[in-house]
């Protein structure tokens, strides 16, 4: 069991007039109306630090807090390697299965929580993110100088990220480009997910075939933008979802949700093969060009 957590939400103008129960059921669809009602009535949810009724109308500036009791988190691989460290940054080799940030059923079983245990007096912050099922290289800022400088490099597309992944047999050319926009798509239970959308934001990926096997194909993919689940969505968009991807299907959209099933498929579900293989950036204080490589953990058949 973990130690529980407190979630804070400040009411905005667009939420004015909603009742407390309407606010939570509208914003957080992972739980049912009955579950949110029970939490409010049991005092787990407070308004400005005071108990509140489900039918209380909300005003801008008010603060809602949800005191989530301790819960049993799913087991994940908590062992990871620190490939490089200095006073300003860390390079982590993250295993597949370990979430980066707290969210959903994960709090302490996350990379960020484990790093804060290891470096308790530092403001550790990931400069970029990897999906739970994605393995490989992650850049972590340790100092304010590093966090600011590296974040700016991300914005300026100066951090080079190269991934390797597996798809099935394909007829793709040796090199190709995917630039389909990625945006929010309505999805039951979560409200929305990201997927291929003509109304989304610009996304750009460059692909290269490294090896064609009898049953699968090894690709190298470089992304110049960092949209959520970009590689999974882009390859599915052109007809080649990642092998084992439980969520994204041909067209770059989530698979239809089975209403009769109690199991909701979410982006953090495992099964796909994706590895952050190479990372290049400029050191925030020495200005040295840094390059790291982590060999992919899967094979070609």
Structural class estimated from helices and strands: alpha+beta
| CATH architecture type of the largest domain | 2-Layer Sandwich
| Chain-averaged pLDDT | 94
- Runs in which pLDDT lies below 50 for 5 or more consecutive residues are none
Q: How large a portion of the residues is in β-strands, by DSSP E?
A: 25-35%
**How many strands in all?**
18
The backbone outline, from C-alpha atoms, is globular
**Tally of domains:** 2
Provide the CATH top-level class of the largest domain: Alpha Beta
3D architecture notes:
- The chain has 5 helices and 18 strands.
- The protein is α+β, with helices and mostly antiparallel strands and 301 residues long.
- The two termini are 41 Å apart.
- The model has no long low-confidence stretch (mean pLDDT 94).
- It has helices spanning 20-27, 33-41, 111-118, 144-155, 230-237; strands spanning 5-10, 45-47, 50-51, 63-68, 81-85, 89-94, 125-126, 135-141, 160-167, 175-178, 182-187, 191-196, 205-212, 217-223, 248-249, 253-254, 274-282, 289-293.
- 15% of the residues lie in helices and 31% in strands.
- It folds into 2 domains: 5-68, RNA-binding S4 domain (Structural Genomics Hypothetical 15.5 Kd Protein In mrcA-pckA Intergenic Region, Chain A), CATH 3.10.290; 81-293, Pseudouridine synthase.
